[in-house]
């Protein structure tokens, strides 16, 4: 019998929470729960999701003690795992992160370029606050954080809370591997054994085999060169599709791959390698934040309200979030010592030999009760080394700017971003971002 766990989901009102709950319930054999708590700082938003999840838990796993609260002491006491996915400033600030750079012809994206920098300046204090609650009320707990921008948040936690039991994670490699599994005719992405190096939303695969050790790359490369990560013949670029922008991203992997056919790229590299294309294909009046607000947020919340009103979720369309599956896998590895091999965002310490040992990198790690142990990826080629070092510097400058309240360093961070053409454009964007982030950022001097 596995020991039962107590989990708090921080960001209970997230559009992903209901899917995570479904996933947790489906995985009771692998990762049994005794307690599930929601925590959020927006009581009303969280209530919409919590009222529905209460019904779901009652119907499907009544043995789990479920509650929702905005009180940190209640939320973080007697907890084994904190699953954190907060969005400080909400989707309305995401919209500003995306639209302001676009005004200047620069990539407007949630985690890449100036948008990611702006989001980081809001996220850092929010995530640090969660760590402090966890350390105060449940010092033995682990935090699994996927609040974005995970890369800069990870650097901030490395600097500000170096001893905290936090692991930063991302589902993009998992999502890409899902497509690759489809392309290669594998049942599940867990059948892929990988070697990968980089930063979060900024990395490359060097090896992929199946569990029997067969090399997947020759056939995969042929496919990616033609179709990116889309299935052959997928209908692409239809602006009426809810996920139109994601379909474009999966297709664009073909052009990223062409830049370095030795490796298989993360989709997010499109923002750094093809910023001109991205800007030309963005609508400055309707960005991904609008897509999410008009679709995912509306649909999830409408369904949650319907469940709460009907008092049953028997016929619900909410599905176990794919994005949650690897979180359960990670928590299970830490709790039950499975020695699972997973991509995590961790201090480099030589895992990538020829870059800063103090960078936060995304590499395969072995996960057990001991925590995570990164695998050595060795030396990386000049092209990737150059890109990574530039981006690491951006991320470190953001964290330094946050700590020192330094306008100068934040300007330097934006200037150094590969997505920004000049120091003057960086300054114009920065001044606009400061104006709308007054409520969230420290006052810069
Ligand atoms: P959302 O706005 O729907 O939900 C976020 C929730 O966090 C809201 O209910 C909000 O009230 C709450 N919140 C904000 N600040 C808080 C604070 N300081 N303390 C407690 N709660 C707070 O956002 P979403 O679209 O569901 O995304 C949630 C987060 O997950 C985002 O950061 C997103 O970028 C991230 N995400 C990460 C990955 C990954 O790969 N790492 C994947 C998907 C989503
Ligand atoms: C992927 C990334 C996340 C990001 C999300 C955005 O899952 O790994 O880091 O937050 O995409 O998705 P959205 O649907 O909100 O644009
Ligand atoms: Mn991510």
From TrEMBL:
Enumerate the Gene Ontology biological process terms: carbohydrate metabolic process
Active-site feature positions: 171 (proton donor), 268 (proton acceptor)
Q: Which residues form the Glycosyl hydrolase family 4 C-terminal domain?
A: 196-420
Where, by residue number, does the polypeptide cross the bilayer?
A: 6-25
- SUPFAM superfamilies hit by this protein: LDH C-terminal domain-like, NAD(P)-binding Rossmann-fold domains
Assigned protein family = Belongs to the glycosyl hydrolase 4 family.
Which residues hold substrate?
A: 94, 148, 288
What protein name applies here?
A: Glycosyl hydrolase family 4 C-terminal domain-containing protein
How is the cofactor bound, as the UniProt entry phrases it?
Answer: Binds 1 NAD(+) per subunit.
What residues bind Mn(2+), as annotated? 170, 201
**Organism expressing this protein natively:** Enterococcus moraviensis ATCC BAA-383
Q: Which cofactor does it need?
A: NAD(+)
Keyword list, A-Z: Cobalt, Glycosidase, Hydrolase, Iron, Manganese, Membrane, Metal-binding, NAD, Nickel, Transmembrane, Transmembrane helix
Pfam families, per the entry: Glyco_hydro_4, Glyco_hydro_4C
Q: Where is this site: Increases basicity of active site Tyr?
A: 110
GO MF terms held by the record:
hydrolase activity, hydrolyzing O-glycosyl compounds; metal ion binding; oxidoreductase activity, acting on the CH-OH group of donors, NAD or NADP as acceptor
